[in-house]
Amino acid sequence: MESAKAGSDGHGLARGRRAAQRLVENTPCPVVLDEAAVATEALLRKHTARPSHSLARRVACLSVFLGSFATLTSPYLAQNAQRFGHSTYNVNTSFYIYYDNWGEVQHGTAGHGDRQGWPDLAPKDIPSWSWYRKTHPWSEIRARLEKGVTKDLENASKAWGFLRYACIGVFLLVLAVAVTKRPVLRAVLRSPGPLVFSATTIAGLGVGCIWFYSVHPGLRFMLIVYPLVLFAAAYGIEHLACASQGLTGYLRKLPAPRLWLPLSFGLMLVYDIPAIVMQLVTTQVSAGW
């Protein structure tokens, strides 16, 4: 019902604008009537604008989200609390992230039963941020982060495809915002939640992956960030740019910005899927398949 009402309101606004324009073009007093047309359009916009989200609706949505998250994670949290004594226990984030390499992990908590229960180490030997800072100056911490950035980007550029898709998504978001010239700050302030969530989650996971490279140089943790970047790019194009509208001027021959991501990724997949299949077949044949 709301979409039908919004559609009829949009058609009414367009009809009012066209009628006002015809009135201006066919009368000898264009200045006065032009002002009348502007006032008419403003009145139409006032009465056909969609109502903003109320605070109660935002609170309800947040409650549903938090309730769903708590329901889905409660078995995991309960088992952790029962088995390890900490509901958020995880060997990677609780211990391994504070070691310098995998060898230290094996001689540390991994070699003292950290997957069966709380590791049987003296409290002073349990790794933590304060434990790590005692033996590592800020220069070593900075060097570890720089190494993680360099190596993760290098490995991601050699992996098949995903970094290219993420970079193209971010580029199209910046381009869409630039060419449609919508007041971005106003759009962000109107609904800051998704932007804050995306930015903090991507930044937090990204820094964690960069830091963890010294312990595990694989890309499996970095791949967690990848779909979030694509989601943020798609959401940004839809809400920070006039994604559903056609472009003006010399850009009017291009499709609407909301189509840029699917069109770009579709063209890339036309090449990537056969190439990936051929690579898999070649690998299997060379392995004696």
Q: Your description of this structure?
A:
Helix 7 crosses helix 10 and helix 8 runs parallel beside helix 11. Among the domains are: 2-48; 137-289, no CATH class. The protein has helices spanning 2-25, 30-48, 55-84, 91-94, 102-107, 129-133, 138-158, 162-180, 184-190, 192-212, 222-239, 260-286. With 289 residues, it is mostly helical. Mean pLDDT is 77; it is low at 1-9, 27-37 and 47-52. The longest helix has 30 residues, at 55-84.
What's the helix and strand layout?
Blueprint: H1 2-25, H2 30-48, H3 55-84, H4 91-94, H5 102-107, H6 129-133, H7 138-158, H8 162-180, H9 184-190, H10 192-212, H11 222-239, H12 260-286
Helix pairs in contact: 1-2, 7-10, 8-11, 8-12, 10-11
Q: What attributes does this structure have?
A:
single chain; mainly alpha; 0% strand
In percent, how much strand structure appears in the residues? under 5%
Q: Please, what is the average pLDDT?
A: 77
Q: Mind describing the biggest β-sheet?
A: none
The best one-word shape is: globular
Structural class based on helices, strands and sheet pairing: mainly alpha
**How many helices does DSSP assign?**
12
Q: Rounded to an integer, what's the Rg over CA atoms?
A: 27 Å
Secondary structure: number of strands: 0
Give the CA-CA distance, first to last residue. 57 Å
Order of helices and strands: HHHHHHHHHHHH
| Helical content band | 55-70%
Could you list the spans in which at least 5 consecutive residues all have pLDDT below 50? 1-9, 27-37, 47-52
